[in-house]
User: What shape does this take?
Amino acid sequence: MSEIETVGMREFRANLQKYTKHTASPIAVTSHGEAVGYYIPVRSSPKEADLKALQNAVKKMTTLLRDKGISEDEIVADFRVAHELKAEL
Assistant: This one.
């Protein structure tokens, strides 16, 4: 097992965003060389990860539609036609 990363309190406070958003392993927070606490990151739940993936997909789809000049109304109309054709089969 690897050793836990040690970070001084001042460093931890100054770079809180870095340590809380980009660190997957626990960190020992020290003051004058003595551990005073531990930061233990919590992994995103699958629901949060799924939401982020969907948000990214929406951004990509929006860009693709805009670049191709396709409106949402056109997609809905095409879907309705396809749905009606499928119902006739």
Observations:
- Strands lie at 5-8, 27-31, 34-39.
